[in-house]
Amino acid sequence: MNTGPVSPCPPCPPRVPVSPVSPVAPVSPVSPCVPCGPRVPRVPVSPVAPSYPQSLKAPPPEVRQLVSESQSPGPEEPPASGRHRQEDPGVLCVLLHNYTSQTEPCPSLRP
């Protein structure tokens, strides 16, 4: 391989290693340059939870905080304190469905 500055071809962008060479895109005999190969589009990293891989679909901190509050209410917030806490299970279920791949239906809200 000639890596000197005399090469007329631009350098290839960083490439993801591919095991076998794909026969789908043959090398064009007209161009003297070797094609760079398929480029993988860069997905922007979510700033919400940088410590989790995107495949896990981790819920944002506010959803996790709501879940922990509903599972263990503090002494200042007893379970039967007010009506505004009754809509939490349904809202949490919908929020969790958005961030996880659950298939079971949400429980219906009690009036």
Automatic annotation (TrEMBL):
Top-level division of the source organism's lineage: Eukaryota
Segments for region (Disordered): 44-92
Protein name in the entry: Uncharacterized protein
